[in-house]
Amino acid sequence: MNILIVNNTPIPATKYGGTERIIWWLGRELNRLGHKITYLVGEGSSCPFGKVLIYDPAKDINQQVPDDIDVVHFQFQVHGFTKKPYIVTVHNNPGSAELDVNSVFVSANHAQRHGSSVFVHNAIDTADYSKPDLNNKRTHAHFLAKAAWRVKNVKGAIDVATTSGNKLVVLGGTRLNIKMGLRFTPNLNVRFKGMVGDEAKSVVMNSSKALLFPVLWHEPFGIAIVESLYFGCPVLGTPYGSLPELVPAEVGFLSASNSELADALKNADAFDKKYCHQYAIDNFNIGKMATEYLALYRNVLNGEQLNQNKPTLIERDQLKYLPWNN
After folding, report:
1. pTM of the prediction?
2. Which pLDDT band, with edges at 50, 70 and 90, does 137 fall under?
3. Residues in contact with 86: Cβ distance below 8 Å, sequence separation at least 6, in sequence order
4. What is the pLDDT of residue 59?
5. pLDDT tens digits for range 49-62
6. 311 located within any domain
7. Same domain, yes or no: 237 and 268
8. How far is CA 256 from the centre of its chain?
9. Closest CA to 154 of 120, 190, 196, 122
10. Of 198, 205, 242, 314, which sits with the fewest C-beta atoms within 10 Å of its C-beta?
11. Are strands 183-184 and 176-177 parallel, antiparallel or unpaired?
């Protein structure tokens, strides 16, 4: 199969870039399975296992898709595309917009909230991570997300760590942030690592007691969850979006209460690191993800549409920030 993967940003991701990393791993795995991969992506991209074309947002998308492509996999919503069979992965919470009939979501909850049942869980390619030392001493908790986004609730993670008497390492943020309004974190119990690559993340996670993930929105997926579990870290977060589906009781604890999450962090050693690690490998591996996308490619190649109707957000009057109890 000749597969075109389309996104409007460059690949590969060097530090932050969830979508970019997902489509890189997906394309590499599909190529390993014998498929021909072409990327139509942002300027500055390069790839050793696939052909790279540069996406031009000002140009008709139909004119940018080569004639020899069998199926197109978009990573953003497109309009007026008719040239080839296609699917569209929805990576974010797009609000009340009407989505393409061939939209695919990244968790069951994500799909359900938009009146759909079509989803493929994201995955990691463990080849890009160091091998975990599950017997390594655990000295801190970690937060892994774009800390400038208030819905990720880095303040809540800091409060949980402080309440429990633990140190916190923040991956994805800085102590002084002026991009999203002036924010300064004086708490010296917290270390900020900024935007880091997989190697630096691996070092932090391999000595972490748990991932603190107290999001204040309906998280579509959260690749940080899988990364952390792979390193034997249980996930302590809020029960919103995909988290109840991704984090069973054996690998984490969910609550919107600072004090309850702090108590869980105090007892993080009660979670089996080997079980967390194996759970991530069994359920969120890149081979499983590629196989599920191949099935959807075949569906649209057979002339099927993935959803009966165009998906759209069912409950439109949602809180901007979901409840969080200190």
Report:
1. 0.94
2. very high
3. 71, 72, 73, 74, 78, 102, 300
4. 97
5. 999 999 999 999 99
6. no
7. yes
8. 21
9. 190
10. 314
11. antiparallel
